[in-house]
Amino acid sequence: MPEPGSMVIIIGDGLGDWPLPELADQTPLEAAPTPHLDRLALEGENGLMDPIAPGVRAGSDTAHLAILGFDPSCYYTGRGPFEALGIGMDVRRGDICFRVNFATVDADLRVTDRRAGRITDGTAQLAAALNGLEHDGCTFLFTASVAHRAALIIRGPGLGPRVSDADPHVEGVSPQIAHGEDDASRKTAALVNWFVMRAHEMLTDHPINRTREAQGLPPANIALPRGAGSAPELPTFHARYGFTGAMVVEVGLVKGIGKYLEMAVMDVPEAHGDLTTDEIAMAKAVVAALTHHPFVLCNLKCPDVAGHDGDAWAKLAAVEKLDRLVGYVREHAAPDTYLAVTGDHSTPVLARDHTGDPLPLLIHGPHTRPDQVAAYGERPAARGGLHRIRGTDLLNLLMSLTLRAEKFGA
Ligand code: ZN
Ligand code: ZN
Q1: Which of 409, 364, 386 lies closest to 43, judged by CA?
Q2: What is the pLDDT of residues 120-170, one digit of tens each?
């Protein structure tokens, strides 16, 4: 057998879409000029991919777990742990993790702004005031994320993850009292409720909030945890597959999955998670990572942002970015590298949220079987030789193509 080749999966986040009237009933992928993607679709094999299962609306975290071969119905324990990992927190087995919003409450403890005026400055100092609090033998680790977002880890013995949210998810009402579904989770809930009130006390008179109030801005005077989850019982990527993997991705949630799987998570300063990202810098990082790792996963975030914004023209621009990224990787990676291009879920411009529509998938490499597909897009892909697969099948297909799959049987 020849030497095994390398594998790259390039994911356009939220790539799939619906036909749009302003694009003459084409999808952004079908309408945008994508010379590289179209050539690879012509030369390679194509199909549709359901990231989790047909009709399942995937989140970015569950979809990436599936695409990495970890069935999320077995391994997913909530968004909190992955968010915490993604912003560089040290998540350990037994930890209970939460996503948190800095929010504003009035004197009667009613939430007047769930995002504290989408606060951007000073959140690191506010978070530092809450980080390291201790209560009832447990420690609270707290780190600010992007804008009003933060993550909380509660670490201590005998904690459970089945805890309701303190975040009421609407304004004009008080924070919810967290409840636990079992004894261990009731212990966690009591700690959450203590933390919310302690955070309110400590943030109310914080100098950052005094300054905000003087400027007429809503103070970030409370922290509202939601989305409790325990650290997942995942093997490392290397333990699962016997080879190493790297990630070139923009968003914390996906980085967190890579870190937890002990993959090499590359830092690309030119990647900003929006249309200002330098896609060629990301492509160069993919090519560089391939010199050390046989597997690289790359995620370009901007198609998802455009979909959530309901902005067809931004989605077209995002698709063109993806095309240039893929073109550079194909040109500069070794010829025996197998390249898969797909999405983690659809975020149609008209839906402004994730939908369960399948994604186009192309696989390009030296020994793929060309099919009748000559362009990259949702409808062309439906005629391809890969037909319709699930996300958990993708790495198996690539391992088979690169001669890395174990033989099943004699
Ligand atoms: Zn996504
Ligand atoms: Zn999204």
Answers
A1: 364
A2: 889 999 999 999 999 999 999 999 988 899 999 999 999 999 999 999 999
Nearest ligand atom owner, CA of 345: 1
Interhelix angle for 183-204 vs 123-130, to 10°?
130
Q: Which domain holds residue 143?
A: 89-229
pLDDT score for 233:
86
pLDDT value, residue 92: 86
Q: How far is the CA of 310 from the centre of ligand 2 (A)?
A: 12
Distance from residue 174's CA to the centre of ligand 1 (Å) = 31
| Co-location of 380 and 247 in the same domain | yes
The whole-model pTM stands at 0.86
Neighbours of ion ligand 2 (CB under 5 A): 304
Give the ligand with the smallest distance to the CA of 347: 2
- Number of structural domains, the chain? 2
CATH of the domain at 314: 3.40.720.10
Residues 41 and 122 in one domain: no
d(CA 82, CA 85): 5
CA–centroid distance, 111 to ligand 2, in Å, is 25
